[in-house]
Write a structure and sequence with these properties.
This protein has 25 helices and twelve strands. It has 699 residues and is mainly alpha-helical. It has four domains: 182 residues, no CATH class; 227 residues; 99 residues, no CATH class; 144 residues, no CATH class. The strands form five sheets. A three-stranded antiparallel β-sheet has the order 7-8-9. Strand 10 and strand 11 form a beta hairpin. Helix 13 crosses helix 17 and helix 21 crosses helix 23. It is flat, with a radius of gyration of 32 Å. It starts with a helix and ends with a helix.
């Protein structure tokens, strides 16, 4: 199909008029009434009013079509975007329903990439494209070492250009790309719903969480006080510089100096015993450009005898830590109080994101006043709740039930944001950037930068200074394999920890059984959030790994102990004989796992024992009829239950419990009956420890 140049400039869509709204009014959010309402004929669609996720940058909310110089291509891309946003069509290559507005930018980028490939072939129209051309495009993607997931996104738009042909006026792909073979098969990948987001290693997450909690629980009051003093001194006087003459700047400086005299303020200086003028700070406070302030330095120096120089210290006492007998940091100065504010914001974010199960966008959407505790008739808090907006799918307000550390972090952020710079105080959002002149100080992707700086500061300054606290540095991997933490990793990691119940440092900080139940309650037990499904998927993986490890330990002579041990050893012996699974014999892992499957589905890991669940023998469900016994209750697990199996990993918990009981029994103010109960319990724990050590050959 050929077009003359004059005709190309007059192309009109056959399906949408230029003034057609890109999205219906009900797709725009109620709390963004002033956001643009783009029309089809516009060359840029600002869709920010329909994007609920607060962690998306403003730039990603704009669909820009101006880079398509060819008017047919430009119109085709706009029509495809309109179809994807508004009209679901039957397709094997994409999820049902309409596209999220935030994804339009990715659609445009993938089409630009394909059109550049067409230009190299000198193919102007999609109607002229061939399957051989598509095969060449796939080969180029392969040769460029593009990962399978990205390749799939690159080519799925080609499928859409065929599926949406009834909505495209002048150009489309006239045949089924790759004969209708699904994109994941074309690129050689697998269609797998498994979560590919990496989790944060325990040697990183443990110290990171502990330092974050330390900031929230013990350092926050000092930082908030310093921020309040800083805001009172300089935060409210920051002005916007305007271009003008040097004489006018001199008059402006004189006016500012006169204000300093009247209010008793000294000239800002660098911290130290003999402070010097801080020209950059003076420029910011007086509203002068930096260059003009330096040119007027002689006038500033002449004012020193009258006004004096401030050494930059913030008059806030720093708390002394009992463990060290010293303040947790040196005196606050005007120059580092903002750095500590950023560190506290980061710490609060880490606690909220990791211990609530909320997504990054849901955490960043928390507003001031969103924390709403539920109290009983005596005024005691019985539930901590926070209101935010679910960012997966359709944006709706939800109430999350959270644990106490998360509630504390939210309260700290409520206080901190009230003390910051005016631009921050004007924001309604809880998690913000500290940017003096920003009209939208929300964190967005900057939180990843904040987290990186937080880890660097902890490792280089805070941890060496507070080494007596016993909290290790945060592992950042090696130079060959560095660990880079992103916001998506927190939810993935907490799901893994809840499902696996590790016995390391992270489990020592948070009771994951409690966090699991509270988080599930926060999502109202629904499948909408996906968090329960993520935990269950992780739990299935953990069970598979656990039962295989228990079996492999048995082969090495590390046997289980406890009431279930005899039955379990008999099962393992039978499996081993059937497989011929002895030294020097290669056994198919799939066959081994298949034979262990009946044990895997019964396995429920616990802190003092693993439960191989048999409903009729479950001590935790003895109060229920057998038909109602679906699965064990971890919180009231009896390690002497007939289903219980004690393993080497449980030994440290038994030893810790024995030490607790012995400490309680040694107290003077307990009755003889209580002392006897404690001594009987200690005897029981000692017997269990001996049994585990003998079975596992632990020293």
């Amino acid at each position: 199909m050929q077009y003359f140049a004059a005709d190309l400039q007059l192309l009109q869509s056959k399906h949408w008029s230029d003034d057609a709204p890109v999205l219906p009014e009900n797709k725009f959010l109620d709390d963004k009434p002033d956001a643009p309402r783009p029309r089809f004929g516009e060359e840029q669609w600002n869709l920010i009013g329909a994007i609920a996720r607060n962690n998306i940058s403003d730039r990603r909310c704009v669909a820009d079509f101006t880079n398509f110089s060819d008017p047919v291509r430009r119109l085709t891309v706009k029509e495809l975007a309109m179809q994807r946003l508004n009209t679901p069509i039957a397709s094997l290559y994409s999820k049902p329903g309409c596209m999220d507005p935030v994804s339009v930018r990715a659609l445009i980028m993938n089409l630009r990439k394909f059109f550049r490939f067409m230009d190299k072939l000198n193919v102007k129209r999609l109607l002229d494209i061939t399957q051989d051309n598509l095969n060449n495009y796939l080969k180029i993607l392969n040769d460029s070492s593009t990962n399978k997931s990205t390749m799939q996104k690159n080519i799925v738009v080609i499928y859409w250009l065929h599926d949406a042909r009834d909505f495209l006026s002048f150009d489309w792909v006239p045949f089924k790309p790759w004969g209708g073979i699904p994109p994941h098969k074309v690129v050689g990948g697998k269609k797998n719903s498994e979560n590919k987001t990496p989790r944060i290693p325990e040697e990183t997450m443990g110290p990171l969480l502990r330092w974050a909690l330390l900031y929230v629980e013990r350092f926050s009051n000092d930082i908030i006080d310093a921020s309040r003093v800083y805001g009172d001194q300089v935060g409210g006087t920051i002005l916007t510089a305007k271009r003008t003459s040097l004489n006018e700047y001199r008059l402006k400086l004189e006016s500012w100096l006169e204000d300093c005299r009247r209010s008793g303020k000294r000239l800002p200086g660098h911290a130290g015993d003999h402070p010097e003028l801080n020209i950059l700070r003076i420029a910011k406070l007086s509203g002068l450009p930096n260059q003009a302030a330096y040119k007027l330095r002689l006038r500033l120096e002449a004012a020193i005898p009258t006004l004096g120089i401030d050494n930059g210290r913030i008059p806030v006492a720093v708390s002394v830590l009992p463990e060290t007998g010293k303040p947790w940091r040196g005196d606050f100065t005007e120059w580092d109080v903002l750095s500590e504010c950023k560190a506290l914001i980061t710490a609060c974010y880490i606690v909220c994101a990791y211990l609530s199960g909320m997504r990054d966008g849901e955490v960043q959407d928390i507003r001031r006043g969103a924390y709403r505790p539920t109290r009983d008739e005596t005024g005691q808090i019985i539930r901590h709740k926070v209101v935010s907006r679910r960012s997966k799918g359709r944006a709706i307000k939800r109430t999350w039930v959270i644990i106490e550390p998360v509630a504390k972090a939210i309260e700290v952020m409520e206080q901190l944001t009230q003390t910051m710079l005016p631009s921050v105080r004007r924001s309604n959002f809880l998690f913000v950037q500290i940017r003096p002149k920003s009209s939208n100080p929300t964190l967005k992707a900057m939180i990843n930068v904040y987290i990186g700086k937080f880890i660097k500061t902890i490792n280089s300054q805070t941890q060496p200074r507070l080494v007596k606290l016993g909290i290790p540095a945060i592992s950042v991997g090696t130079s060959d394999d560095p660990i880079k933490i992103t916001t998506r990793m927190f939810r993935r990691t907490v799901a893994w920890h809840i499902a696996n119940r590790p016995f390391g440092v992270v489990a020592g900080m948070i009771q994951y059984g409690h966090a699991c139940e509270i988080t599930f309650e926060g999502y109202a037990g629904s499948s909408e959030s996906g968090f329960r499904a993520e935990v269950e998927a992780e739990r299935e993986t953990a069970r598979r790994i656990d039962i295989l490890e228990i079996y492999e330990d048995y082969k090495r002579g590390v046997k289980p102990a406890g009431p279930m041990s005899t039955e379990l050893e008999a099962e393992f012996k039978n499996i081993r004989e059937q497989l011929g699974d002895f030294r020097g014999k290669i056994v198919d892992d799939r066959r081994r796992m298949k034979m262990l499957e009946h044990l895997r589905i019964r396995l429920f890991p616990g802190m003092m024992a693993d439960c191989f669940f048999e409903p009729k023998d479950a001590a935790c469900l003895s109060h229920l009829k057998e038909k109602d016994r679906k699965q064990p209750v971890a919180g009231i697990c009896d390690p002497n239950c007939r289903n219980a199996c004690w393993l080497k990993k449980h030994l440290s918990v038994w030893e810790g419990s024995l030490a607790d009981v012995q400490r309680l029994a040694a107290r003077n103010r307990i009755s003889p009956i209580q002392r006897k109960i404690l001594r009987d319990k200690a005897k029981e724990y000692r017997a269990g420890i001996t049994s585990i050590r003998e079975a596992c050959h632990a020293g």
